[in-house]
Amino acid sequence: MSTYAKGDRVRFLGFGEPDPYSRLRVGAEGTVATVDDLGTVHVDWDDGNRLGMVVAPPPGRPPDRIELVRS
Protein backbone atom coordinates (compact mmCIF):
# COMPACT_ATOMS: atom_id res chain seq x y z
CA MET A 1 0.00 0.00 0.00
CA SER A 2 1.37 3.39 -0.98
CA THR A 3 1.62 6.38 1.34
CA TYR A 4 0.51 8.53 -1.58
CA ALA A 5 -2.93 8.84 -3.14
CA LYS A 6 -4.38 10.51 -6.22
CA GLY A 7 -4.64 14.26 -5.67
CA ASP A 8 -1.91 14.48 -3.02
CA ARG A 9 0.55 17.34 -3.44
CA VAL A 10 4.21 16.28 -3.28
CA ARG A 11 7.66 17.88 -3.42
CA PHE A 12 10.63 16.32 -5.24
CA LEU A 13 13.67 15.72 -3.02
CA GLY A 14 15.95 13.80 -5.41
CA PHE A 15 16.41 10.72 -7.54
CA GLY A 16 17.66 7.44 -6.10
CA GLU A 17 19.95 7.19 -9.12
CA PRO A 18 21.03 10.06 -11.40
CA ASP A 19 18.68 10.65 -14.34
CA PRO A 20 20.49 12.58 -17.07
CA TYR A 21 17.31 12.82 -19.15
CA SER A 22 15.07 14.57 -16.59
CA ARG A 23 14.86 18.32 -16.11
CA LEU A 24 13.10 17.87 -12.77
CA ARG A 25 14.67 20.07 -10.08
CA VAL A 26 14.85 19.48 -6.34
CA GLY A 27 12.02 21.42 -4.71
CA ALA A 28 9.61 21.04 -7.65
CA GLU A 29 6.02 20.39 -6.63
CA GLY A 30 3.28 18.44 -8.31
CA THR A 31 0.07 16.48 -7.92
CA VAL A 32 -0.13 12.68 -7.71
CA ALA A 33 -2.00 11.46 -10.81
CA THR A 34 -2.04 7.77 -9.91
CA VAL A 35 -0.16 5.04 -8.05
CA ASP A 36 0.25 1.86 -10.08
CA ASP A 37 0.24 -1.77 -8.91
CA LEU A 38 4.04 -1.72 -8.48
CA GLY A 39 3.83 1.31 -6.19
CA THR A 40 5.24 3.79 -8.71
CA VAL A 41 3.87 7.24 -7.88
CA HIS A 42 3.02 9.04 -11.15
CA VAL A 43 3.16 12.81 -10.66
CA ASP A 44 1.94 15.68 -12.81
CA TRP A 45 4.60 18.25 -11.99
CA ASP A 46 3.66 21.94 -11.95
CA ASP A 47 6.26 22.66 -14.67
CA GLY A 48 4.25 20.52 -17.11
CA ASN A 49 6.31 17.33 -16.87
CA ARG A 50 4.90 13.97 -15.87
CA LEU A 51 7.18 11.43 -14.26
CA GLY A 52 6.79 8.29 -12.16
CA MET A 53 8.70 8.14 -8.88
CA VAL A 54 9.94 4.74 -7.72
CA VAL A 55 9.58 5.19 -3.97
CA ALA A 56 9.74 1.46 -3.12
CA PRO A 57 12.33 0.01 -5.51
CA PRO A 58 13.57 -3.56 -5.74
CA PRO A 59 16.58 -4.54 -3.60
CA GLY A 60 19.82 -2.88 -4.70
CA ARG A 61 18.22 0.25 -6.16
CA PRO A 62 17.93 3.39 -4.03
CA PRO A 63 14.48 5.01 -3.91
CA ASP A 64 13.47 8.23 -5.62
CA ARG A 65 12.61 10.74 -2.91
CA ILE A 66 9.44 12.81 -2.64
CA GLU A 67 7.62 14.17 0.37
CA LEU A 68 3.95 14.83 1.00
CA VAL A 69 3.20 18.56 0.96
CA ARG A 70 -0.51 18.14 1.67
CA SER A 71 -3.24 15.65 0.94
Strand order of the biggest β-sheet: 4-3-2-1-5
Order of SSEs: EEEEE
End-to-end Cα distance? 16 Å
β content, as a range?
35-45%
Poorly predicted runs are none
Whole-number radius of gyration?
A: 11 Å
Determine the structural class based on helices, strands and strand pairing: mainly beta
Largest beta-sheet details? 5 strands, antiparallel
Helix content: under 10%
Rounded average pLDDT: 90
- β-strand number: 5
Q: In one word, what is the shape?
A: globular
Describe this entry's structure for a reader.
With 71 residues, this protein is mainly beta. 0% of the residues lie in helices and 42% in strands. The chain contains no helices and five strands. Strands 4-3-2-1-5 form a five-stranded antiparallel beta sheet, with no helix packed on it. Strand 2 and strand 3 form a beta hairpin. The chain is globular and about 30 Å long.
Task: Looking at this protein, list some descriptive labels.
71 residues; mainly beta; five-stranded antiparallel β-sheet; 5 strands; 0% helix
Briefly summarize what is shown.
The chain has 71 residues and is mostly beta strands.
Itemize the secondary structure elements and their pairings.
Layout: E1 9-14, E2 29-35, E3 40-45, E4 50-54, E5 65-70
Antiparallel strand pairs: 1-2, 1-5, 2-3, 3-4
